[in-house]
Amino acid sequence: MDENVEMPNNHMIWAILSAIFCFLPLGIVSIYYAWKVDGLYNDGKYEEAQEAADKAKNYAIFSAGVAVVLIAVQILVFVLAGTGFIGALMFG
Questions:
Q1: Distance between CA 67 and CA 42 in Å, rounded?
Q2: pTM recorded for the entire structure
Q3: Which of 3, 32, 44, 82 is the most buried (most CB within 10 A)?
Q4: pLDDT digits (tens, 9 = 90+) for 65-84
Q5: CA dist 14 to 2, 61, 65, 78, Å?
């Protein structure tokens, strides 16, 4: 029965892309879990391999989400600084 278990997708491409283009710390965690998937599967630890694959995917998604939020905050600060709103708050 164990021989019929399909190897889970390790999501390594998404992990690497999230580390390069999104939020590096979470991208590195995603790469770590993606790297573990193949070894766990080859050791016969199929459930742990699936869990590692799921974590790799989730951390890549979280990395992208953090990047979107940070970009939105940067745009907001840039827009508010351009209108003089931030200066008015800081200096009255």
A1: 34
A2: 0.82
A3: 32
A4: 999 999 999 998 888 777 77
A5: 28, 9, 13, 29
